Amino acid sequence: MSDYTLTYSESAKGWQSFYSYKPEKMIGMNSKFYSFKDGKLYVHNSDITFRNNFYGTQYVSRISGVINEDPYSVKTFKTFVLDSTSPWDATFTTDLDSGFVDSTWFSLKEGDYFAYIRRNEDDDNLKLRSAQGIGTPSNVDSSDTSAVVVTFSFNVDSIISIGDELYSKDGLANDFIGSVTSVSKKKITVDTTVTGGAVPLVSNYMFYVKNSIAESYGTTGYYLKYELENNSMSFVEMFSIGSNLFKSYP
Predict the structure, then answer these.
(1) Residue 149, beta-bridge partner list
(2) Using an 8 Å Cβ cutoff, are 80 and 109 in contact?
């Protein structure tokens, strides 16, 4: 573990913050906080320099914690709310799942920053509700080297949309076909140029997974561990965090 500076709060009666800077000596005097580094004197609570800048190096602010309401129940954490002067990048981990929210996705509502938790883009967990079955196709056309057209004898589920990922199931194996580029009643066209996906057989069962970024399914688990990051060089305050959660019913 790298070195850090740990601070104690007299009012909170506890150790509250970890700082990236490592001074040679520290002292408080006349409402100012000073430290020495490489024989040089620095004042920390100065309004004429950037925030998170220590001894000429710019750092990132991080806050981590756990939401553990009703710890004996599996819950779905749908949203994340920041009572802050600025949105933060957020990553989430549960005992079953993971997700994230980019700072640009937060919307300011009634003084708080609000966002839906997204699944990670590389999440290939096909047991989630975002995976939905279609059926066995009646024809597969792979004559176009850049696309595969899958035709069914019935109208395709209207929930499937452009950007979703199409899979085929051959026995116990699941093969990724590619990203959906168009849906027209009984036909699904899939782009295979970027992914180099497999070509399904007519006998394969087809299913799709909703786009992890466009669709919000939140994260599921007994608890939610979050880590917030902010690289602002200006003043930022964080007052509280919250999440809209509900009991999960599999």
Answers:
(1) 141, 189
(2) no
CATH for 131-207 is 2.40.30
Domain map of the chain by residue range?
A: 5-59, 66-123+216-247, 131-207
Per-residue pLDDT of the chain (250 residues; tens, 9 = 90+): 577 888 888 888 888 888 888 898 988 888 888 999 998 999 988 888 888 888 888 889 999 999 998 899 999 999 999 999 999 999 999 998 889 999 999 999 999 999 999 887 666 566 666 678 888 999 998 888 788 899 999 988 677 888 888 888 876 667 888 889 999 889 999 987 765 566 778 888 888 888 766 666 788 899 999 999 999 988 899 999 999 999 887 6
Q: Classify residue 97 by its DSSP letter.
A: -
Start-to-end CA distance of the chain, whole Å, equals: 40
Cα separation, 219 vs 228, in Å, equals 16
Joined tokens for residue 69: 């309401």
Quote the radius of gyration of the chain (alpha carbons, Å): 25
What is the biggest distance separating any 2 CA atoms in the chain, rounded to whole angstroms?
81
